């Protein structure tokens, strides 16, 4: 039976974001070509919903749909004055949220994190929303750790996305979490989107493109990605870019949104995950191939950034267990 997904559309909904869940999840197929998710949209009272683009959307279901859902998605909507002024849910929205089961997975897109926060669903958790509203979010909900520098946050049952394209990344992530890398990659390919962007990747927070393209760090980033197995240092990167370390770090952060060394760790983790998913290389060989040096360092970074061990990650993403111990050639 397909996983049942109910998308709640509220007044002020952003049309593009309203369709993201169905667009991605409907492309997740089992080996026979059957859909793994059933996505349905509802509204309060089943009434037409006013969008923020000057038109209304007609839906077929009301909020009773939330009761039987395995996952509930709160589509991006403009937070109302009542919510922004008091931090409290409007009564009808609160009544709809009360229909959501205690074990139901809940996803918010962009500013809908305000609704989850007002409902108490994010208390004590880490969350994200659109970077431009993170300060206001913190003032309203100081008990919640809001992170303006990530695309999405996965707390297990409750997930929040920064908005726009980050919602696509979150749903590809959910398919990956539910059904493994092969299904997720195929779904992303059908949607013509990137198969994987790390949730911890920085939001694009007004990082200007350098006026002098010749002084960009892009070429150096490409150079590093072909040398992940080597002990690349900040000095090596700055020298390749023909800059001082200080200038290189400043330009790198302006373009990428993070420091060179943080980016290097994330790039190595991404490569390690690809190898865990697609190969039967041992953890030791993957640690060497990705520049971590030894399995202990790889495990430490996996626990820090992903909250699980490399072998647990491999099992969760359906890659084959290591079956041989002889040296293998790593491309």
From TrEMBL:
InterPro entries: Class_I_gatase-like, DJ-1/PfpI, Homeodomain-like_sf, HTH_AraC, INH-QAR. Keywords: Transcription, Transcription regulation. Gene3D superfamilies: 3.40.50.880, Homeodomain-like (1.10.10.60). Residues 218-316 form the HTH araC/xylS-type domain. One of its GO terms (molecular function) is sequence-specific DNA binding. Pfam families: DJ-1_PfpI (PF01965), HTH_18 (PF12833). This is Helix-turn-helix domain-containing protein. It comes from Streptomyces botrytidirepellens. The lineage of its organism: Bacteria, Bacillati, Actinomycetota, Actinomycetes, Kitasatosporales.
């Amino acid at each position: 039976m397909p996983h049942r997904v109910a998308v709640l559309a509220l007044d002020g909904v952003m049309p593009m974001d309203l369709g993201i869940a169905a667009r991605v999840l409907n492309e997740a197929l089992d080996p026979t070509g059957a859909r793994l998710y059933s996505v349905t949209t509802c509204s309060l009272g089943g009434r037409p919903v006013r969008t923020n683009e000057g038109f209304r959307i007609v839906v077929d279901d009301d909020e009773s749909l939330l009761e039987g859902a395995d996952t509930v998605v709160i589509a991006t909507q403009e937070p109302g004055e009542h919510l922004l002024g008091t931090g409290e849910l409007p009564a009808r929205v609160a009544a709809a949220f009360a229909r959501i089961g205690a074990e139901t997975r809940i996803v918010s897109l962009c500013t809908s994190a305000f609704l989850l926060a007002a409902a108490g669903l994010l208390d004590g958790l880490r969350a994200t929303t659109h970077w431009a509203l993170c300060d206001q979010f913190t003032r309203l909900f100081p008990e919640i750790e809001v992170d303006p520098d990530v695309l999405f946050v996965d707390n297990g049952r409750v997930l929040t996305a920064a908005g726009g394209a980050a919602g696509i990344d979150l749903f590809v992530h959910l398919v990956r979490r539910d059904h493994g890398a092969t299904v997720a990659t195929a779904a992303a390919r059908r949607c013509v989107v990137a198969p994987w962007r790390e949730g911890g990747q920085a939001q694009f927070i007004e990082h200007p493109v350098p006026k002098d393209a010749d002084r960009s760090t892009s070429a150096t980033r490409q150079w590093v990605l072909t040398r992940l197995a080597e002990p690349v240092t900040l000095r090596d990167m700055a020298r390749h870019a023909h800059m001082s370390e200080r200038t290189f770090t400043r330009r790198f952060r302006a373009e990428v949104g993070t420091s060179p060394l943080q980016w290097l760790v994330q790039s190595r983790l991404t490569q390690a995950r690809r190898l865990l998913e697609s190969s039967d290389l041992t953890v030791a060989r993957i640690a060497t191939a990705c520049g971590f040096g030894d399995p202990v360092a790889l495990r430490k970074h996996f626990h820090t950034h992903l909250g699980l061990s490399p072998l647990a990650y491999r099992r969760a993403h359906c890659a084959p267990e290591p079956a041989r111990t002889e040296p293998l050639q790593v491309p």
